[in-house]
Design brief:
mainly alpha, 178 residues
Length: 178
């Protein structure tokens, strides 16, 4: 019995059942850093090169979105992903598909808003299942590697891994249903 195998099994079970806290932390960090950086750049362009105000704006926005990302990670992640998708979708392709003409400024803004709202609904709905799948899959993978490291037969390791995956995913989705 190896220590690495036991640690991998324990880490797999922990991540499968409680890994969504790491996703909350990641969403908070990514959204806080990204939007804090954007706030610093915007402050630099609006107010000039004042280092303290630029730093302060970035720090305030980082703190706000880090805490908001920890509390409402699903909404923050969906909002940011939808904003990025709405910004980068080429409007010419969309308007050629829809109407066949080049959009004017108002139509472009309305079309981007429509894309943003549609993606917000889709990503917010899919995010719960995605978090459950990520944490259950990663935990199951670590469990399987740990069981193989402990010299468990492959059939037993796969059976235990499948049970853990289904149990943790079901537990996560039922817990989030409240």
């Amino acid at each position: 019995m190896s220590v690495e195998g036991v640690l991998l099994v324990l880490a797999g079970v922990f991540i499968a059942f409680w890994g969504h806290f790491f996703i909350r932390l990641a969403v908070g960090l990514i959204s806080g850093l990204w939007l804090g950086w954007l706030a610093s750049i915007l402050t630099t362009h609006l107010l000039g090169g004042h280092t303290f105000t630029t730093f302060l704006a970035g720090l305030v926005v980082f703190s706000l979105f880090f805490v908001l990302g920890l509390i409402k990670h699903r909404f923050v992640a969906s909002f940011l992903l939808s904003a990025v998708i709405a910004y980068y979708v080429p409007l010419e392709t969309v308007t050629e598909f829809l109407a066949g003409s080049s959009p004017n400024e108002v139509q472009s803004i309305l079309l981007r808003l429509l894309i943003f709202l549609g993606m917000l609904i889709i990503t917010y709905t899919a995010f719960k299942l995605l978090v459950g799948l990520i944490t259950s899959s990663l935990g199951s993978l670590l469990l399987y590697v740990g069981l193989v490291e402990l010299k468990t037969t492959e059939v037993i390791a796969l059976l235990i891994t499948a049970i853990l995956f289904l149990t943790s995913l079901t537990w996560y989705l039922l817990k989030r249903k409240k």
